[in-house]
Amino acid sequence: MLLARADQVTRRYGDVLALDRVDLTVRAGEMVGLLGPNGAGKSTLMNLIVGLRRPTSGRIELFGGDPRDPASRRQLGMTPQETGLPGTLRVGEVVDFVAAHYPDPVPRGELLDRFGLTDQVRRQTGGLSGGQRRRLAVALAFVGRPRLVLLDEPTTGLDVEARRTLWDAIRAFHADGGTVLLSSHYLEEVEALAERVVVIGHGRVLADDSVDAIRSVVGVRRVGFVADELPALPGVVRSELIDGRHHLLTTDADQLVRDLVVAGVAFSELEVRPTSLEEAFLAITAEERPRDEPPVTATAGR
Ligand SMILES: Nc1ncnc2c1ncn2[C@@H]1O[C@H](COP(=O)(O)OP(=O)(O)OP(=O)(O)O)[C@@H](O)[C@H]1O
To answer: What span is annotated as the signal peptide, if there is one (predicted)?
Structure first.
């Protein structure tokens, strides 16, 4: 069953094209990671799905209806990228306030325990640490026993322990049958939680595949060397010539070096190094595709 769907969704902010004909589906029981660099369009997509904004064109469905209709949002939980909590309210009061909107909320003690906030129940939210405040903001998405939860960069700014606590809570929700769409800059976070990854860049879906398949693409290596003419080489995702130095991006650097030797390329100053996620995104993004061609699959270039 489809819980959320974006169909050819475009969103503009004035001259900025934040989303460009994006398709996305989230099925019941899935944990989907939305991965992309700053400004890719992740928050915009989430805000459209929860009905906070309208698409410029295209269509969004939430639980089969229009997300701007409150009835479509009854089984939804959401934590936006930034949440303002009333500083003088206590943690327990904030939870009770949100819980009062739902017919069968998670009991306060159980929720706070799940998110490692039991000791803070009487603390005013203004006195919480940044990490505690963030955990509370994420916990609030789960109060109403939603079927679908959208978390926009849930662990940004958290230390390792707080991040683990949040991951455990999100995993427990999913293990109970809950559906999750979460955005992140971090491949590590998406790997830890999601089964499916949608890579988004410059407002477009660049890949939509399993975590393993995406990892093999973003696990691209950069092989740099100096040489004259290069023959066509298999397995090269992208190549550049900068100041007389070749830079080849590949998923199998060992094989590429063997191919260089076999082809008799007289190379020097060889250097092999991992690419950052950012570079890998750029490699996928930079592929000049005709605008009507479907997104590259994560296995392209292997
Ligand atoms: N309210 C707005 N007005 C104008 N431009 C906006 C607005 N919101 C977003 N944008 C622009 O739309 C693009 C996509 O932004 P969005 O916040 O969706 O990206 P993101 O992937 O969530 O980025 P980040 O990881 O930095 O949060 C960016 O170029 C951003 O500057």
So the answer is: none
